[in-house]
Amino acid sequence: MSAPAPMPEFSRRIMFNRTWDLLSNRWKFYIVYLLAPGEMRFGDLRRCCVAVSRPTFTAYLRALEQEGFVVREAAPEGNAVAYRLTSLGRSAVPAVSALIEWGFAGDTDADKPRAGEEER
Description:
Strand content: 5-15%
Shape: globular
Oligomer: single chain
Helix content: 40-55%
Low-confidence stretches: none
CATH architecture of the domain at 20-102: Orthogonal Bundle
């Protein structure tokens, strides 16, 4: 069996930019993690992310939708809106979950100041 053809540089840059954009925004990253088990209504998602303002949270959801990570579905019977991951979003779940779990399991001294930081 022969090795796959190398990815063109342009495609590599697009994939790097997509990855970096997701990783560099903690709320978008966390939203993908929250949606991994399945569809969630806007209100339920919002309650998991109370530290970010509603307009900013909405902007992150819209960005994830435009980037192809999530799909927004409005219920026909009212104003309920739900979000779910697309195939692209689901493909990011193993990496996102691994990094989140790594962070949860992290170092037991996480609450102690790092070198150069002052104690609060």
